[in-house]
User: Fold this.
Amino acid sequence: MEPFYTALNAVKVLRSSVGHVFDTLGNGVRADHGEENKDNKFLLELQELLSTVNVNLRELDQAVNSLTPPPGPFNLGNSTYLTQECTLERQALYADLVKSYKWTDKVHEYGNLAVTLFSQNSLKRSYINSSSKRRRMQTSSHNVPPQTVDQVIGNIDRQFSDMSVTIQRPYATNAVLQITLGRILKAMAAFKGLMIEWVVVKGHGETLDLWTESRHKVFRKVTENAHAAMLHFYSPTMPELAVRSFMTWFHSYNTLFSDPCKRCGNHLHSALPPTWRDFRTLEPFHEECKP
Amino acid sequence: MGVTVLQQFPMVENRTGPQTIEFLTKRVVALGAVQTGQFLVDCETYMSVPNLGPQRTVHVVHNSEAPASVFAVLESGQRSVPLVADGLFDLLMQKMATIYSKKQPKIEAKGPRFEIADFCVKLGSVTMGQNFKGVLVEVEYRPCLVASSCWELVREFLQGFLGSVVPATPPPYLQNRMNELYQPIDTVNQYLEQFAQYRKATGVR
Ligand SMILES: [Zn+2]
Assistant:
């Protein structure tokens, strides 16, 4: 690509110096040539310009020589048929075609960049790195019949005596759960199939909906952590296990106000209780004391 | 409305009421609290006239935290009947002046109100009639509605700025209601419990 750009640049330089010659010729003898020997001075200037043209021409020659000619005619694929188009308004299609080709090219390039970025991100929610062994028994976690969802949630509801989970379906088939954890807190979780998409945690006395956050700082923190947990537990290959793990983790908040921090032993840090629960051990930690 | 714990801060010699409030204000602010205005809890006590049989007492309490409500607690023997009404209740009490009459001076707690994270702290100087009686500290932990779940947490918070004067057990009124859902009337009852102590005491406490 580099020699090609050099060659194109040489053409540009040559054109500009030739243009300069004709410019000078067109203007003829100018006032700044003075009175004495003005013809000679003009001729000298012209000669100088012509020699620049020569130099530039040689440079172009060199640049062109270093280019490797294409092995054969370019294959334009189906776009060659455009030349056979005889309808007037369709003859301009080629320009559009080139434009959209460039655009697809860019999309492809950005796509590649995005893939590298996303594959470094551990919170992905796609099949991208599930092993080929698992790939065979892959199930779609977003496309699950409502009966299956009801069954999974029903099992979770029965599993914990102090956590009640009820299912609503305000938006077509996707479930929205209302979770009541003792008299400590309430939450709403929106599902897509068996995938948890959104969680909002609020206090026992607050009105629950999907979009407004709690007026208490502690529940805003728990909401944040619940978002981290729903991404952490997400598993496209085992959606049921993911939901069950999330719910078990979430259930550990029944001691939100009564358990001291595992690290510092205190109830409060910055006037907040331990709002973090370890994903594996479910132990309580202050945000600042997190391992 | 969350679990609220009310406790008195004992007065020491050579520190006046305002000085005590200022002393506590400094400590609360050092924790990161921000002052959010003033508060006032006042209590009028009415007695039933003797010719109506056994004497009954009605405490009528206003709390600036619930400005649209009037709280009333009727005491008759061992029983106590709470009532939460709107502002018209005050007028009703006036109409019943022939049945219930004021016998005691008005008692009130007022002072600065602070917020820090989900806590609300109120430092009240208690006056009965014109006399200064002492200092009450109210701490509300708003996210929690069940006292048994957060008593230790609230206690730790109280200790953070009151030090060793914080008792190991919740206020007597709260002890019987540790597993109930906390209601605004519970705060009123705690104030009545404290006000009763101040009435008994001679001088400051
Ligand atoms: Zn800690």
User: Anything to note?
Assistant: The pocket of zinc ion is lined by residues A 261, 263-264, 266, 269, 286, 289 (CB under 6 Å). Strands of chain A lie at 163-171, 174-181, 185-192, 195-203, 276-277, 284-285. The longest helix of chain A spans residues 38-65. The interface with chain B takes residues 183-184, 203-205, 214, 216-219, 256-258, 260, 266-268, 270-273 of chain A (CB under 8 Å).
